[in-house]
Amino acid sequence: MRIIILVLFAILLAAVAAVAWSADEAPAQFRFSGSGAIATLDPAQMSWIQDLRIAGLMYEGLFATDPDTLRPIPACAEQIDIDASGREYTFRLRADARWSNGDPVAADDFIFAWRRAIEPGTAADYAFFFHDVEGLADYVAWRWQEINRIAALPPSQRFDAATRHLAEADARFAQTVALRAVNPQTLHLRLRRPVAYWLDIVSFAAAYPLHRRSVEPHRRVGESGIVYYDEQWAKPGCTHYNGPYALSDWRFKRGLTLRRNSHYWDRGRIHIESVACLDVADPDTAWLMYSTGRLDWLPSVEASFAPVLVAQARQRADIHPYRAFGTYYYNINCRPRLWDGRPNPFADPRVRRAFSLAVDRAALVDHVTRRGEPPATTLVPPGVIPDYPSVEGMGFDPGRAQTELAAAGYPGGRGFPRVRLLYSTDGPHGLIAESIAGMWRRTLGVSVRLAGKEVQSFREDKKNQVFMIARASWYGDYLDPTTFLDTLRRENGNNDSAFADDAYEALLDAAEAEHHPGARLSRLAEAERYLVNEAAPIIPLYGFVHIAAFDPARAEGLNVNARMVLSLKDVTLRDNEGTSATAD
């Protein structure tokens, strides 16, 4: 009876929230709710899937990811030449590529955006993508050296020194970085090494162009020479877009609206006039809005009864379970000391291995998540990347887990400090944390404190390593193992474990130097084998299974794919009578 009452109460709360939403919903033909609140509309700053999904509707890179094949296909560029060395690329932009105000998209718009993505004041998690451009990493290192030098000067000297330095930086970038506009429609670059997945990189959000003339006026300069931008540039009406849609409205914690870009070169394939992405924090409310017709699409149903929907998928045409190219795992803080100065027991790989070995992944997916997820012992999802060798990680082994912990000096968990397990309170993360904490208590004899935080606080604590263990997930950005393995490199912006291991770096460096495709993948598999079986800075838990909800008779042509790429090209909306409800 108590469970029934709680379920009914949850439904009642969802209904109240849905009614509140209905009074303030954005008018649009196609409406969906993403996987969380939009954090930023600056492509250089993006790392969360909900942000990347919106960026792909507003901007377009040189190439784009085909939603059917998941391979890169020409987009803003119509021609490409790659030299025999695999290092030099020449992209020819489409003559009819236009910004949403009608301006032609120019090669300089790409150079401006890429430089902005790596500059010290604006670089974020994906700045490392561009470090394969010859001369770029050295330029960034020089910039930081000069910024630190200027910051050490007396305050009265900094402004003049910064002004001189920035003029020199412009000249240095043009002369030493192998990235140039041959003419307004031709972009040429040279890489420091062949990169098998470079066309995937130029398809990614961080490599989208920016409308330089509207963004540059928001440029600001700090006294030490750091360049940053007023965030207003990304707000509605402040810039222009070269993708299928342009931003019309954005309300904090409510959502945003996009309107079809009438200047988009491929606009004949865009049939939906307007799109709204609503920020619906409660997953049960999102489901209620979908089931009552106020949302057309849910990319991932996270409602409490989602496992029931998986069982109903064969009877319901609008429920679409699919395996995503991603892994749910736990980060382990690898720093020598914790955030509060105490010695960190997880700096010892034996402790990290013990905690991984103590997790019964099969029980977790069978009894907690219950979506048919495959248990994971590796970071790279198996069987997705062509020709990548199979890697086996550590499975559930209580005896070995206890032996490893005892060898580290904590037999039976005695003397081990209380473990702070950090997770975000959205979705099922709390239930997962409770289950795994119980496994650690029973197998290792340790005490665990669950630290649930709302999403923004969770992100801040995680980025600053204010945890011992924290929930994490990663979706592949391109079809290569490095999209996962590079996240644990020492200097990678996504390395929330603060993992720094010379042996792992050497294994990845050896793979990077290998030009034979098969041998390169074998070396990467060796690196992953070491990562998950020896170093263990993460605890892989399961591969993602998402449940998309949409009526294929309503959204004709919409599909789901492992990369979660949203393309609205050739998608037609139909009303209940089957008549097209979209623009011609």
Q: How does this structure look, described?
A:
There is one protein chain. The N and C termini lie far apart (53 Å). A hairpin with a 5-residue loop joins strand 4 and strand 5. The chain contains 17 helices and 19 strands. It has a 5-stranded mixed sheet with strand order 15-14-16-13-17. Strands 1-12-11-10 form a 4-stranded mixed sheet, covered by helices on one side. The protein folds into 3 domains: 2-39 and 238-322 and 549-573, D-Maltodextrin-Binding Protein, domain 2 (3-Layer(aba) Sandwich), CATH 3.40.190.10; 43-233, Alpha-Beta Complex (Dipeptide-binding Protein, domain 1); 323-545, Dipeptide-binding Protein, Domain 3 (Dipeptide-binding Protein, domain 3, Roll). It has helices at 2-22, 49-58, 107-118, 136-151, 155-176, 198-201, 212-215, 283-291, 306-312, 349-357, 361-369, 398-407, 429-444, 455-463, 482-485, 502-513, 517-535, and strands spanning 30-33, 63-65, 72-74, 77-82, 88-93, 179-183, 186-190, 219-221, 227-229, 245-251, 255-260, 274-278, 319-332, 419-424, 448-453, 469-475, 538-549, 555-556, 572-573. The chain is an alpha+beta fold and 584 residues long. Helix 1 packs across helix 8 (283-291), helix 4 packs antiparallel against helix 5 and helix 10 packs antiparallel against helix 12.
